[in-house]
TrEMBL record:
GO CC term (a single one): Smc5-Smc6 complex
Organism: Lentinula detonsa
Sequence ranges assigned to domain RecF/RecN/SMC N-terminal in this UniProt record: 137-1170
Keyword Nucleus: no
Coiled-coil residue spans: 757-801, 892-1046
MF terms (GO), sorted A to Z: single-stranded DNA binding
The keyword Nucleotide-binding is annotated on this UniProt entry: no
Ranges for region Disordered: 1-122, 398-417
Superkingdom field: Eukaryota
Protein name: Structural maintenance of chromosomes protein 5
Length: 1221
């Protein structure tokens, strides 16, 4: 059996002076060394230049590049001004380099980038003494590692070809490099446990790698010890213990990128490279080559782009809400203006209501003062006339006093006489009454005989009736009735008890049966309700509308609840409110649903469309303001007047659509109410978005030009949405931004839930079985009820017979008792008739009463005569007093005429005084009332009105005082300008005018102003929020644009350089290849597309893990990596068995290209691992070939043998043989 105890590596180099021959026990040719020295001396100047450039880049890398995306305010207007100022200085100035903004520590940093001149970050400068670039591998030592017992070998600074048969351990070298430099085993695609890399049968091992460092520093030796036990390993750096973090930090400083497939491609990862997405390829390429800031810029753009999208979405939502709130406030703004106008008029009315009582009091006070002075003067005049006429008036008063005394005495006599006349009348009336009574007695006496005859007849009738009634009562009751009533044997009582018992038992049985029947009926009703509910749920599963409502509830619960509320409150609106598009928008051809849904955003799907302004305002007020849903909710609403809102025409005619092979516009493939279509045309421009479902069916460039004519629009080709816009500035440049069509969710037909349907159908079947069982039990209970009813009927008949016999007996006994009572009553009446007095006695009593009446009449006549005599005496005395009264009255009249003549002047004065006094008192009263009114008006008004009135009053008082002074001095009156001299009537006229204006201004509905002001505050707050978000969005956009300018130009330069080499390499093998940058709105989706064509009849196709063959993928991979090599930043790269599956022609071309690329002066170190080589390949003196051999007859000692000596011996022998011939 062959043993693999050791696998020595023999190194061969076409330029032995370029390696350490002492370490490899190989002595190179002196001639070759001299040629090498000469070549290096010839290139010393060029290398010095490169070294200086690389040193500068190294220093700037270690300081770190200035961040181009500032977190603070470094992208504000001040920064823009600095940028413009720096641009004006120009690059020709010694100070042409841009001045960097101040960092967080306050230090100014110089920027190393110029617009249009982004430096490619290159590897650290090569050491001219040995040709190695810092970070490249100088030496590798392995012990007990996979197939190796022990091996140590040196590498070359350029291309290192590691060759050997399969299974000898070539790929183990790649594993050793990755693990020895502390990279994860995952990058190898093999075992993930470190212990798995220790050679079988051994307990530990190690990997030691020597890396080149910058000139003047000792090389970095990394020693990693591996063990089969435990998961931890140990590191040493230059013989000192170290941590894995320190090793990783040193790798980062040297730019080692083992984890990047573009610079380190192990055998088990080759297929993964072709499987990488274009986005992953872009990211890995950035890490491996080009500017060192590419990855950071890209990550910044991705983060900022996502943040920008989020802010834009919020801004769009805020804009929608703000427009809606502004529209609602604009709709009621006229009412608010009317409210403010009305408030202004009301304030003026309130002011006038204060001015009017004050002005009235001022005018009444002036009138009161005038009347007061006139009243005082007239009062003095009246007093003087009164004193002059006093004697005559004294005598007249005496006569008046006497006249009053006579009048009083005469009136007293009159009253006495009237009383006597009244007594006479009473006596006369008494006589008349007694006369009438006597006539009544006489008439009664005449009727007494007839009354007696009637009484006797009534007595005879009563006696006969009583005799008949007693005869009927004395007749005995029938024996049957007596037996029933007496019930001596208890037969009737027992029959009644039996009847009652049976009735109670029957009722109990009926109640029990009724209860069971009711219980069963209720149970059946419950099951029937469950069946109905399950059937409704089952029908709803098949209802598209229900499915849509369920999806809407998942999408936005407020909107779904509003739809349910609206369906129950349609009567409150003038016109139909169109439900959101998620419910009313249908796409009959479901293939167009993803395109329609990708064009619309979430707000459009949940917007209610009103068809008139009143419904729009009412819907917002009820749900958004008043909380009609029972909670605080917000829904999106929309309204535009179809008669006043213009709509943009489609960008292309139908003929143009057909010529470009479009299917039509999106509006042609949807079905919805006209109002919803109007909304979609206004807000989404559905009628302007052309669509075709066939990829590559439309010439995108021609479609872009056609759409751009109208200023821009969108069109959809297959699964790509093209958003075309035209700049409004400069040369009106056209831009086209693309994005993918997403999957349809809200508009997709999700079908019926089969499990739920089966479950409901099973429940309905179970419920129906239960209903059948209940029906059977109910029928049984109804039969029992019929039997109980039959028994109850028999029992009722028995009870009825007993009751009839008892009722008949009781009726007979009651009749007999009533007859006895009637007999007793008639006997009492007969007794009363017999006890009545006789007619003879009554006749005597009447005659006695007639005599008594006559006697009383005689006495009355006597009293009457006495009173008449008193009346005559009183009448005589009254006549005498009357004559005296007449005499005194005549004297008074004569004296009054005399006084009247004297008092005419006094009376006139008195009338004038009375008139003035009345006016004075009225003015006094009115002025007091006006004073109280003015005080009340001033006390109840505001401080502002009081101050305004006091100012006006002070000006008027000052003017009036100045006017009086001018009149007294005879000078010109003062100016009345600025003085309010209006009277109360003028104020009243102004008040009437203002009140008339107030009536013309209609009242505003309650709560409108409150809503307007509240919404105004909300709008202001929302505008501030929106402004802040717009500022943030603008700042982010500036940062994005600034970063994009650097990143895109550097990326385009890198990809352009790689693509040029890539295409040239494919051209050399008779194929075609191209590398493109695929742009996207989402910076995370920017990608590098590799397009290849291996046959003439094919078109360029995207490289994928499925489309091309394994050999084609390998060829494409190695050509891409080779094209990337010249741009790479890593100090070394590695590919393992990349040539597997290639044909000889392709493999030879690839090998030649690799030699050319990796052996240039500025090429970095490269490792190519392959198990086979073609004959007559191209080689370069800078190449180093490492041959891996193993077998049974390997020497036990290490460092024995020199393959280079064997080769030189073979060449020398062949040359001698050739010369000898």
């Amino acid at each position: 059996m062959p043993r693999q105890s050791r696998s020595p590596v023999a190194a061969t180099s076409t330029s032995s002076g370029n390696e350490s021959t002492k370490e490899n026990h190989v002595r190179g040719s002196t001639r070759v060394k001299m040629e090498k020295v000469k070549q290096r001396q010839a290139k010393v100047k060029e290398e010095n230049v490169i070294r200086r450039a690389r040193v500068r880049v190294d220093e700037e890398d270690r300081r770190g590049h200035e961040r181009l995306i500032a977190d603070g305010a470094d992208a504000d207007a001040e920064g823009d001004a600095e940028k413009e100022e720096d641009d004006e200085e120009g690059s020709g100035s010694p100070k042409g380099r841009k001045r960097a903004r101040v960092n967080t520590d306050g230090d100014s940093r110089s920027s190393q980038f110029q617009d249009g001149d982004i430096l490619r970050s290159i590897t650290l400068p090569r050491d001219p003494s040995d040709g190695f670039i810092p970070g490249s591998i100088v030496r590798i030592q392995l012990r007990n590692f996979l197939t190796y017992d022990y091996v140590e070998f040196q590498t070359g600074p350029y291309l290192n070809m590691i060759i050997g048969p399969n299974g000898t351990g070539k790929s183990s070298i790649a594993c050793a490099i990755a693990l020895g430099l502390n990279f994860s085993p995952k990058v190898l695609g093999r075992a993930e446990q470190i212990s798995a890399y220790v050679k079988n049968g051994t307990s530990d091992g190690h990997v030691e790698i020597e890396l080149k460092t910058p000139p003047g520093r000792p090389n970095l030796v990394i020693h990693r010890k591996l063990a089969t036990t435990g998961k931890s390993t140990t590191f040493m750096l230059n013989g000192k213990n170290a941590t894995g973090k320190e090793v990783s930090q040193r790798m980062a400083e040297l730019g080692v990128q083992v984890g990047n497939l573009c610079s380190f491609l192990p055998q088990d990862k080759v297929s993964e490279f072709a499987m990488m997405t274009p986005q992953q390829l872009l990211k890995e390429t950035q890490k491996a080559a080009g500017d060192t800031n590419l990855t950071r810029w890209h990550e910044t753009l991705i983060g900022a782009g996502k943040e920008s999208s989020l802010i834009k979405e919020k801004i769009l939502s805020d804009h929608s809400q703000l427009n809606q709130m502004n529209a609602r406030n604009a709709a009621i703004e006229r009412e608010v203006d009317r409210y403010h106008e009305r408030r202004k008029i009301e304030e003026m009315i309130n002011v006038l209501k204060v001015y009017i009582p004050c002005a009235t009091y001022r005018e009444l006070l002036a009138r009161y003062n005038e009347l007061k002075e006139a009243q005082r003067k007239m009062h003095q005049k009246v007093l003087r006339l009164k004193i002059k006429n006093e004697p005559a008036h004294t005598l007249l008063n005496t006569l008046k006093s006497d006249l009053k005394d006579k009048e009083r005495r005469r009136e007293a006599r009159k009253k006495d006489t009237q009383k006597l006349f009244h007594d006479v009348q009473k006596l006369y009336d008494s006589n008349e009454q007694m006369e009438n009574h006597a006539d009544s007695l006489q008439s009664k006496l005449e009727q007494l005989d007839q009354t007696e005859k009637d009484r006797q007849k009534q007595i005879r009738d009563l006696e006969g009736k009583i005799e008949r009634m007693e005869e009927e009562y004395n007749q005995p009751l029938p024996d049957e009735i007596v037996a029933i009533l007496e019930d001596k044997n208890g037969i009737v009582r027992r029959q009644k008890a039996e009847y009652t018992r049976e009735r109670t038992e029957i009722n109990a049985r009926r109640d029990e049966c009724d209860g069971r029947l009711k219980e069963k009926m209720e149970e059946k009703a419950v099951v029937m309700r469950k069946i109905e509910q399950a059937q409704r749920n089952l029908s709803q599963l098949d209802s598209v509308e229900h499915q849509k409502l369920q999806r809407l509830a998942q999408f936005n619960q407020d909107t779904a609840d509003a739809v349910v509320w609206l369906r129950s409150n349609k009567h409150r609106f003038r016109k139909e409110i169109i439900e959101p598009a998620v419910l009313t928008l249908n796409v009959p051809n479901g293939r167009y649903a993803p395109a329609v849904e990708s064009i619309m955003n979430g707000d459009r799907f949940k917007t209610f469309v009103a068809q008139c302004r009143e419904d729009y305002d009412l819907l917002n007020e009820l749900i958004n303001d008043q909380g009609a849903l029972g909670r605080k909710a917000w829904i999106s609403t929309w309204f535009r007047d179809i008669n006043t809102t213009p709509i943009t025409e489609p960008p292309m005619t139908q003929d143009e659509l057909q010529a470009l092979r479009f299917d039509g516009y999106l509006s042609d493939f949807v079905s919805c109410p006209p109002a919803m279509l109007w909304f979609l045309k206004n807000e989404v421009s559905l009628h302007r978005i052309a669509v075709t479902l066939t990829n590559n069916a439309v010439d995108v460039s021609k479609a872009t030009q056609a759409v751009a004519r109208s200023g821009g629009a969108a069109f959809i080709v297959g699964s790509v949405i093209n958003n075309v816009s035209r700049s409004r500035y400069g040369r009106k440049a056209i831009s086209n931004v693309t994005r993918d069509v997403g999957r349809a969710n809200l508009l997709a037909n999700h079908g019926v839930d089969a499990d739920a349907k089966r479950r409901l159908e099973s429940e309905i079947a179970q419920y129906k079985v239960a209903v059948a069982a209940h029906n059977e039990e109910i029928e049984q209970l109804k039969e029992q009820e019929k039997q109980i009813d039959a028994e109850a009927k028999q029992n009722d008949e028995l009870g009825k017979s007993i009751k009839d016999r008892m009722d008949a007996a009781l009726k007979a006994r009651t009749t007999k008792e009533k007859l006895k009572q009637s007999t007793t009553r008639e006997k009492n009446i007969l007794r009363q008739k017999r006890a009545a007095p006789s007619a003879v006695q009554e006749r005597a009593d009447i005659r006695v009463e007639l005599v008594n009446v006559a006697r009383r009449r005689v006495k009355v006549v006597k009293d009457y005569l006495a009173v008449v005599k008193q009346i005559v005496a009183e009448q005589q005395e009254t006549t005498r007093i009357g004559l005296e009264f007449v005499q005194i009255s005549a004297n008074r009249t004569a004296l009054e005429q005399l006084c009247k003549k004297k008092d005419e002047k006094y009376n006139r004065a008195m009338d004038e005084f009375a008139k003035i006094d009345a006016e004075y008192n009225e003015a006094k009263k009115r002025s007091k009332e006006a004073l109280n009114d003015s005080r009340d008006a001033l006390n109840t008004t505001t401080d502002e009105v009081r101050e305004q009135y006091q100012e006006i009053q002070d000006k008027r008082t000052e003017y009036e005082q100045a006017l009086k002074l001018a009149e007294a001095n005879g000078t010109a009156p003062p100016s009345a300008e600025g003085v309010d001299l209006r009277t109360a009537d003028e104020y009243r006229a102004e008040l009437e005018s203002q009140q008339a204006q107030l009536e013309l201004v209609s009242k505003t509905q309650p709560g409108v102003i409150e809503q307007y002001e509240r919404r105004k505050k909300e709008i202001k707050q929302l505008e501030k929020t929106l402004e802040e978000r717009q500022r943030n969005a603008a700042k982010i956009e500036r940062n994005i644009q600034q970063t994009l300018n650097h990143w895109k130009s550097a990326l385009e330069k890198l990809v352009g350089s790689i693509g040029q080499k890539f295409s040239a390499a494919f051209d050399r093998i008779g194929c075609a290849g191209e590398i493109r940058i695929s742009e996207n709105e989402d910076y995370d989706k920017w990608a590098i597309d590799i397009l290849v064509k291996f046959r003439d009849e094919e078109k360029l196709q995207l490289l994928t893990g499925q489309r091309q063959s394994g050999g084609e993928r390998s060829l494409t991979t190695i050509l891409y990596l080779m094209s990337l090599t010249e741009e790479a930043r890593a100090p070394f790269s590695l590919v393992d068995e990349i040539n597997q599956g290639m044909d000889q022609r392709a493999e030879r071309v690839v090998h030649d290209n690799m030699v050319d690329v990796t052996c240039k002066d500025d090429s970095a170190q490269y490792f190519l691992i392959t198990p086979k080589l073609l004959p007559e390949l191209k080689y370069h003196e800078r190449m180093k070939i490492l041959c891996v051999n193993n077998g049974e007859w390997l020497p036990e000692e290490t460092r024995v043998g020199n393959l280079m000596n064997l080769i030189e011996g073979f060449v020398s022998t062949r040359n001698r043989a050739t010369n000898g011939q």
